[in-house]
Every structure is written in structure tokens, then in C-alpha cells.
Design goal:
With 775 residues, the chain is of the alpha/beta class. The chain contains 26 helices and 27 strands. The strands form four sheets. It has a nine-stranded mixed beta sheet, covered by helices on one side. A seven-stranded mixed beta sheet has the order 18-19-20-21-22-23-24. The protein is globular.
Amino acid sequence: MARGWTLVPAAAVTWAVSGLVIVHPGAAPVVVGAAVAAVALATTLTRRERARARVRRAAAVVVLTALASMIAAAGSWAAIEPRERALEATRAPGPVDVVATVTGKLERWGGDQLAFDAVSVRVDSGAGEQRVSAPIQIIADPEDIVGAAELDVGARIQAVGSARPSDPGTRAVMRLHASGGLTVREPATGMLRVSSDLRRGLFDAVEGLPTAGASLVPGLAVGDTLLVDEALDAAMKESSLSHLTAVSGANCALVVGIAFGIAAAAGAGRVARILVAMIALAAFVVLVTPEPSVVRAAGMAAVAMLALLLGRPAQGIAVLAAAVCACLAVDPWLAGSLGFALSASATASLLLFARALARGLERLMPPVLALTVAVPLAAQLACGPLLILISPSVPVYGVAANVLAAPAAPAVTVLGLTACLAAPIPVLAAGLAAIAWLPAAWIAATAATVSALPGDQLPWIGGAGGALLLAALSAATGLALGLRGDDVRRRRVRAACRGLLAAVGGVLAGTVALAGLLGPLTVPPRWQILACDVGQGDAILLRSDERIVLVDTGPDPDALRGCLDRAGVDRLDLLVLTHFDHDHVGAWEVVRGRAAVVIHGPPDTAEDAEMLSSLSVAGAQIRQVQEGDSGAVGSARWQVLWPTESVGVPGNDASVVLAVTGGGLPATLLLGDLSEDPQRRLLPAIGSRFDVVKVAHHGSADQSATLYDRVAARVGLYTVGADNPFGHPRAEALSLVADGGGVIARTDRHGIVAVWREDDRLVVWRERGDVGAGG
């Protein structure tokens, strides 16, 4: 094995061991025992007089792997007791009172809320106060925060609300929704206070600048995306530019390079230059907070500088492997971080493949342009299979968007970081921020333009099969472009790869043409409400100002995918999972990675929790809702009318009931699978008539006639499968709408149903049937 690769097995084993011990902490003693045995064996082999250099190097790798694994296992083992004590609070029926120290930057959650990571100091669930230190996540409404101006990393806070356990393998042991309020008891102190003031100074410096570019300046400079609104965030993700607002290797390299250069210009020696660069790097990590990509990048920079200090050649892949080992040893929960995996994969692809791809592309374009294209192409080829696991789609224009944004990103980073450091001089900071706004606005415009192009996301097969297929095509692309040599075997390999890519490309082009271009032509473009025909299940789309809501997914992935394609829907601003029966969530994987926000009713099983976790990992903000919760999509407002806090049993009668009004949208009531008794209890919340009602439980007989009389809907949507074994919709359920003069629209007979407002009337379009009026 080449010397630069000797640490790669160590990194792989350490990653696997870390993943094991964070999911199954009880395995930690076994890991430690195996590691001790491995160290003993390696030591015995190296003590032999005739041990060869290769054996000694292999033994050194074994020792490094064992030490990193032992540290990771020990950290996981030590965390068991405090994590279990913190988990006890989630089993209490009442609110939980937590005192904690903020450890992560504030981020948007569910549009109107804020979320951040913290470490608990004290937990009181009503059964007694416990002093326990465990990582948690806290979510709060801004209006419920007392002392919001001081809420930042390092602050001591007190929060009261409902707590739920997090998924196994995640760093946060529980998630606390601070419905009872949040108070900042003590602001940050020391260096954390300084870094907080500097970040706030950068926010002040961009205030007043045009929104899109201004919100990206803190993101590219210090990784703070609090100012980025949902529309720009979605555009950055769809155009594959969201990585620019995650501080990573490029930012660390700039900081280290500038510090190194300043020290060299001052006449400092090698040791002094390295120390100055290390101090600057540590200060930068404090300034931006240690996110996974920052930890990996800072670890790489530190290992590289250590190699330089020791006078050793710093081979890129060896530095990356050593950094991965060190990071996982210190923080084993990074093994479950998608951000850490993507960061390491992208870095490895740049180290290993970018130059070869550039040489191959030089046959098609000038060398400078070839290298510019090769960098994002290498990253996309490496990261694409990982992203398929959370989002079954491939960004079509991602490489082009990165090429367009590449010249602007370093300028925003350097100018924005300088403006942040200049925050104590507001005039200087504002001037630097204004200059940084220009390239930032270019990046924002690039994201908006690229994400608006037709067919910007290519649907793909989900799961491991889709990831393996994309990995094979990525490898074929790399070989077709980067494999050099003119011998017969290499020419045949290149020809085979190009043939495979051409064949797959033809199939995909046909799919895009049929689904992406022809599909939307078969559905009226003016639709505001669209009931998908997904068989015996619910999947309802609502649209306001081009913002999209999907209420449930139905049971059939192919049917849902076809409906979304025909409606021209790529992204969802809000996904509502009313409850977790298969006929309402069975096709959830189709929208994994497409939804910005997910609201849901009470989960019932571990599988439900895993589904929510997967949607969260794919980039969605997850929020359990109950009566009184509300929000906006476009210019329309949604409000949750049910379940109440007293509904304790998940299932049909705990369905999320949603009222959507305003913004020119027909007033719509979606009743989930509610039965007659909770429908009667819902009556006090129905204060006005609705234009459209999604009839509960596919039109079963278990309905409250009083509720439907009060709703007095002009259109009744019955989402039901043809020839279903339940006899839905029942005649008595159909009469609830028809007897009041309402229009009946049922998916079993009419297929897709679309409703929209035209002047003062409602238009009802049926895929199989005539266009009608809803009164």
C-alpha cells in the first residue's frame, strides 16, 4: 500500500467503530478490549528484531486505529449515564424545566421558530430536579424568548416545554419545544462573548442592504444562515450551492494562509509562523462555532501544520485520514453526521480525482476552465450517492451553478470575515459589508436563476439501490473523463463507460421529457388545490404564490411521483403528515429531500420516529403540532384545529386537522381520518364556512352531520381508491356534502381533481369528467 494510503484503513475502522458505539453504547467495553488486544499484538510484532519496516508501519496504523477507537468508545461509554438521566425527563407526562448552556448557532426551524443545540445543566420534569450534563436541542418561538438579544453560543438559558427523545445515534439526547417560554439567565462571557458580539456586528453591518445578497454575507463569512429566508435557502439547495454557507476547508485555508503570510511578512520563523496560524485557526473555530465541516477542516489544517512543524511531507489523503481519526476520537457522534460524511467525501474527491478530471476535460475546453469545472464535478460525483440516500433526485445544473459562483465565493468570504472582525468600527464594517454584498448578490442571483430552470432536479431511485446505481455511473463518468493512456485495454474501458453513460442518459432524457415537460400540460396550470389519485389514501396539494403544501403522501410511491410530476412540483415548502397510517404516509420516501418543513401528529412506533429522523437528515425541519399552532405558506395562512393536548393515543383520532385560508386560496378544511366523536369535539373551533372540505376517512360512515352542516362546503373532496374493500365512500358520507348543494369530487371515479378560484366562483376540474362550478 502506498505510504499516503496507510492511514485510510485506520480512518474507516475508526468511523465504523464510532458508529457502532454511539448506536449501541453497551458495545464500548468490547471495543476497548479488542483495541487493547490489537495494541498488544502490534507491540509484540514490532519488538521482534527481524521486523521489517512494512510490519512496523502496519503496526503503527493498528495502534493509531486502536487508540482512536478506544477514545471514541470511552467517550460514548462515559455519556451513557448522564444521557439516560436526561432521557428520564422525556417520560414524564408534564412539562420539563431545563437550565442549559447554548453550544450551537441559532437556526430557523419550521419557518417562524428558532432552534439551537445546548448542554443541559439542570433538568426538572416534576418528579425531582437533577443536575445532569447532556446534549439537547431546544426549539422556541422568538416571541416566547425573554432576553433574545443575548441568546447566543455560551449563554445560560432556562426553558420550559415538552421534551421528546431523539433518535439513537444522534448527539442530542432529547428535543425540547419551549412552549412554556425561554429566558436568557446569563449572557456569554469571555471569548464566546467577543465572538458573539463580532457576529452580531456583522449582522448590523449588512442591515439595510438588499435582502438576498445581504443574508448570504454572514453565511459565507462565518457560516451563520439565520438571515437566509426559506426561498433563498431552497434555491441554494436546489442549485447545489448550499455548501458555500457551511464553513469548510476553503475558509480554514484562507484563515491559515493569511495568518501564515502575515507572520512571514513580520519576519517570524517557521515555528512562530505555525503557532500564529494555529492560534488564528482556533480563534476562527470559536468565531464560527464547531460545526461538523468546521471540525473536519480545522482538524485537517492542524494535522497539516503539525506535519510541517515536524518537517514531514503532508500528503493530502493521509492528512484527511488522520484528521478523521482525530475528530471521531474526540467526538464519536460525528460518525452519524451527514455533514461530516459529505465534507470528508468532497475533500477526498478533490484530493484524488480533481486533477485527473481536469486533464480529461482539457481535451474539450481550455485548461483554466477545465480545472474550474473539475472541482465541483469531482465533489458532485463523490457526494451524489450519499445524497441519494436522503433525497432521491440528482441536481442537473449543480456543476454549472458552482462554476458561475466560484469566482464570487472567496471574495465574499474574505470581505465578510474582515467586516466581522471590524465590527467594533461600525463605519468600516458597513463599508466592507457593502463591498461583499456585490459578489454575494451574484451568488444569490445564480441560485435563484438555476433553481427556476425547468428540470433542475432529476428524479432518481431512492434507497441503497439508487445510491449504488449512481455510484456506478459516477465511477463510469470519472473513468470516461479521467482515465489516461492509449493502450487497447484503457481505450476499451473508456468506450464501455461512454456507452453506458450514453444509454443511461438517453433513458433519463426521455423520462424528463415525458414527466417534466409533458406532465404539467395535462393538469390545469391555475390549480390552487389538487387531490392526487393515489388509490385508497390521501395526498392533497395546495398552492399559494407558488409556495406548495402537500398534506399526506398516500400509500403508492409511483402514484405520488406521477402526480407531483404532472402538477409541476419539485419542492415542497410544507409537508403535513396528519397521522402515520400507511395510506397517509406510505409514499414518504418520494418527498424525502424535497420538503423544507414537516409538521405532523403524534408518532406511534419506532418506524414513525425513524421516518421523521430520515426527513430531518434530508434537510427538513420537523415539528409536531397541536391545536393552536399556525403558520404561513405564501400569502395563505394555515392553522391546526386538532389534536388537542388531551388526545393521547396516536392514530386516526389524533389526525392533524388543518384549516387553510387567505391569499386568494379557497378556504379549505382537511379533516384527516377523524371519526364522529372527535369531529363533534372539533365543532367549537369551526367559526366560519369553508369553500372546500376534504371529507374525513375517505368517506366512511363514521361522520358528524352537525360538523358538515356548519362547514357548509361548496366542494367535497373524497380521496378514495377504486373498488376498495371498505365500501368507501359510503352513501351517507356523500350526502353530507351533496344535501347542502356542494359538488362531489372523488378520486376513484374522477382521478386527479383540481380546484381553483376564478372571479367569485370555484372551478372544479376532473381528470375523468367535465369541468364544473362549485357554486
